[in-house]
Amino acid sequence: MDKIKISFILNDKPVTVETYPNKRVVDLLREDCECTSVKEGCSEGECGACTVLVNGTPVTSCLMLAGQIEGDSILTLEGLSKDGELDKLQTSFVEAGAVQCGYCTPGMVLSAKALLMKNPHPTHEEIRRALSGNLCRCTGYTKIFKAVDMAAGN
Amino acid sequence: MALRDLAVLGKANVKKDAYNKITGEAKFAADLKFDHMLYGGVFRSTVPHATIKRFDASKALALPGVACVLTSKDIPGGNRIGIILKDEPVLVDDKIRRVGDAIAIVAAETQELVEEALELMEVEYDLLEPILSYEDAMREDSAKVHGETNLHMRKHLESGDVDAAFAQCDVIVEGTYTTNMLSHMFIEPDAGVARIEDGVITVYASTQNAHFDRGEVARTMGLPNNKVRVVQVTTGGGFGGKLDISVQCHLALLANATGRPVKMVRSRKESTDVSAKRHPMTMKAKTGATKDGKIQAVEVFMTGDTGAYASYGPAVIVRAVVHCMGPYEVPNVRVDADFVYTNNPMCGAFRGFGVPQVSVCHEGQMNALAKALNMDPIDLRILNAQRPGTVLATGQVLDEAVGFIETLQEAKKKAAEVLDTCKENQGVGVGCMWYGVGNTGLPNPAAAFVEVLPDASVNLMVGCADIGQGSSTVMAAIAAEELGLSYDDIHVTSADTMVTPEGGASSASRQTFISGNATRIACKQAKETLAQTAANFLNVPKEDLIFRNRMVYSSKDPAIKLTYPELMAEMKKWGKLAVGAGAYNPKTTYLDAKTMAGIPYEIYAYGTTIAQVEVDTSTGEVDVQKLISAHDVGQAVDREMVEGQIEGGMVMAQGFAVFEKIEHEKGKIKNPIFSKYLIPTAMDVPEIYPIIVECPGEAGPFGAKGVGEPALIPGIPAITNAVENALGQRFFELPLMPTEVMKKIRG
Amino acid sequence: MKAFNFYSPRTLTEALDLLDKCKSRATVIAGGTDVVIELTERQRDTDCVININKIDELRYCKVEDGKVKIGALTTFTDLENNSYIRENVKGLHSCAAHVGSPQIRNLGTIGGNVVNCSVAGDSPTTFMALDATVVLQSKTGKREMKLTDFYANCKKTQIADNELMTEIYFDAPAKEVATATMKLGKRKALVIVVVGLAVLIEKDDAGNISRAQVVIGGVSPKPARLPKVEEYLVGKPVSKCTFAPCADLLSDAVREMIPTRASMPYKKEGVKGVSDKTFGQILADFGLQEGGR
Ligand SMILES: Cc1cc2nc3c(=O)[nH]c(=O)nc-3n(C[C@H](O)[C@H](O)[C@H](O)COP(=O)(O)OP(=O)(O)OC[C@H]3O[C@@H](n4cnc5c(N)ncnc54)[C@H](O)[C@@H]3O)c2cc1C
Ligand code: FES
Ligand code: FES
User: Is B165 part of any domain?
Assistant: First the structure.
């Protein structure tokens, strides 16, 4: 197996990683890039804990091979706060009480971020739909919806 | 109106763990990394009942990068673990009792190598007759899973004269209810890391009970308790599924054998396959009442399958028996319960310990009774509701801390406001529950250490594991209230066995009550020194002092006061330290072996849910539209967190009622993954209206009870009853999947 | 994951060259939503993985020469957001919008869905109702075949080891054409199909049905056209009354297709609800009556 070199933008910074190709993006980010906010809950695309944004679009990083993000721009939760200042969504998640165990949280916040980037004032139905690929077993989703509403200024 | 005048409790504080989690900095077990770390894996049985004829790991060992393979022979200490009974091997020795039993463990340089090594291990079995059902288990000539009998536990509770009472009843309703095996499906699969440092084995684990883990690891390793350190790392949900030992003992063995840190992260499938499940139960119930609706007698016979190992099974059975008549005054009660061992997946603790199951039974009975009597379901419940002074079937007399009727009234009020059922296939249902806080009729203490530091900030050390439910936040609020400081002054260290005292399990909704009381007692002790010093300084009797909002002042004259920093300066001057250690054990008694009479719990929480559903009669789909859930929590420590528990519980109830079921065949789980075991998504959840009810009583810290499990329970029967009422059909088995609903509709 | 070499061609030609070299030992990956799971679970032995996801020339959805042409790399999200599809091919829009979750729709491609041909695949049912044609290309040439033929007489599909699917196309629906799909599942998102139905109805000037294409999915390993239902419909007026008996016809079809399967009793009942709703949408699309969901 030949190593491959992968160059991409990670949280606004260009990075190049040399690694084995039989890794998924979730492994690449967690093991080679120290982005442990990217969680793994199912390894089959169902739970959404591994969600990251690729060029602004939420995807499950357990379903992508590392080499597939060559040239792409990746956002993980680590890159959401700028210079120590939390993103509006982050503060609203905290204020709304939308975080319990926190395992779904990184993926949930990123799915919500992708939604708000495209649609700054989503309806309740749009919020539900945007978060439908992120399972949460703790919160019953209700406070998460509220947090997104708050961040959208709805 | 608030019942109590409190400075900190009853508001919403930012959860102690929120910032770490929202920035992604929180480290869960799988996120830990140490130098020279190895990865571990488990070779598991694929058959339910067998002895091992041959096990060969030579090919795996020959693989470069494999550090070791261990079997039962390599265990330095004892090879039996278990929460209540020590009946589960760390690594199989005598025989295999379930699919997924651990036969060998391996450590290797990479996860990839671990998987390769596991593929290279070979095993041959001598198969034994598998016991796969209650009936199988109870056959006299069937193979035995453990020892001489498959009867794991038999319980009998009796009060009054049941037969005589039934003879006098005007109305009797009967039903046999079945609930299925369920999986917790916490989103974080079990994981941990172990390493050895200065002769101490440290295990970092995703767990609900670090102190229990410590004991199990120590026994497995043949070490004294103080040579094992278990640290609960940020834990991605538990719901009872992380009370059993998962990776802890295996990791300690591998770290010990290799001298290197070892990490294990279970796959979703492995996690679901071997973690404890919710007991499937069958409950045959008979309820008798007078024609004006007063319940006279309840009789229940229940059976359950605890699977291959006891886990928390005994606690589930006892609790189910005590709770199965529901939150009602029932003068005559007879309950019998038989639970068996089988070669099915292990069943244990799952949010509610059997009470969710029996709630399906007692509320199904109440729905049927309301119909038989043509009575309003809420009125029927209020008529029979437990209240201060009620005598329970165990003989216990309830004190003033009973807010059940208020939950019924509040829920009803909300229902009038928000429910809208105009369509034919819509229905409304009521579900209620009661829940004894803490372990059943057993000692279950917890402790806390506190130190108020020179700048009036506080270190609080509690054993109780915060698994996201927010116990650290609760303890901080209680400490702040008692000490008269602010919530932000308190730093909480939790569940690290080298630092914090015993906390017991984060289960049975016990931590707010028990660790909360322990925290309060510890704070009172520290306050004793503080008060003495303040009294001397202010020249007032110490009994007159009030600690509140970072001030200490005289209740007689608030102008006589000093600030906390001033007080701490004074403490320093006199060489005083403000430290406290508190422990609390709930006031319960052991239950009588024959009748189960006694005091099983010190306090009870109550709840009522009203559900609105719509059934699509062309496809059988049940749409849960609205859930109103009112909970008597004694005193809300943090309103937002209580609401969060209720909302999360309600959605789990929806899963229980309409989606979830572990399918297993020949002891093997067929749907251990999220694509096959369906839990509610963001698209499925109903509108939820949480209602917090508070009640008198000071047994809990400032009157607080617990809500973790109560939040789940009443939603399940409420949904079931709503579907029954929508379709005019009775349902006796959950979940109400479209297939089952359709059968009722189309025959 | 087992070891393999990884290639990420930028052009179709490059990809076809690579494929020709590796042949059966190659694994093509597009969105990866099916294939990465197989790799993670070590179910697939492969020497080389060819990532076609960077071949931008295969990502399009356009109307050309009266045909709707969809490049193999088009994702479900692309289709869902495509205004032409949303307005004119409602069945395909609804199909794409109901796949998995946002993340899956962002990754999953039409090519992957059609070639993977799983029982749970949603778009093949819809494309079959649209009577679509797949375009296959190899180093040596290009061939086209109807989707029905692509799936006929084989375990999975007719694609050869050295071929890529590059496009799927179908006749751009005229004004007189309405399409609808529906999938019955067990919850509202991340739904695996229990019964899927896709319908295309064309009416003549008199308002009678001149063409009916009815396909059922989730019942047999591959989607199936239902000639009996289609024959029943042709010539009849487009109306609720005409469509009502389809529920029973579909129910009979399910019973015939899986007479002994444990899921049959439910599917044969559930399909009736699906039928009513799908044909309700057809009526709505013709502007005749409010549809179901
Ligand atoms: C959580 C989850 C939910 C899902 N829900 C749904 C659903 O609701 N409905 C549904 O239909 N599917 C669903 N799927 C399945 C999957 O997402 C789809 O089948 C998807 O369209 C596959 O496309 P892909 O690009 O990801 O395929 P890949 O995984 O990249 O490839 C799939 C197969 O097709 C081959 N292949 C891909 N593209 C080409 C090509 N152009 N030429 C030749 N061969 C090719 C690959 O070699 C591979 O064998 C779901 C999957 C997941 C993980
Ligand atoms: S780990 Fe990727 S979706 Fe669950
Ligand atoms: S907060 Fe625990 S899974 Fe969402």
Answer: no
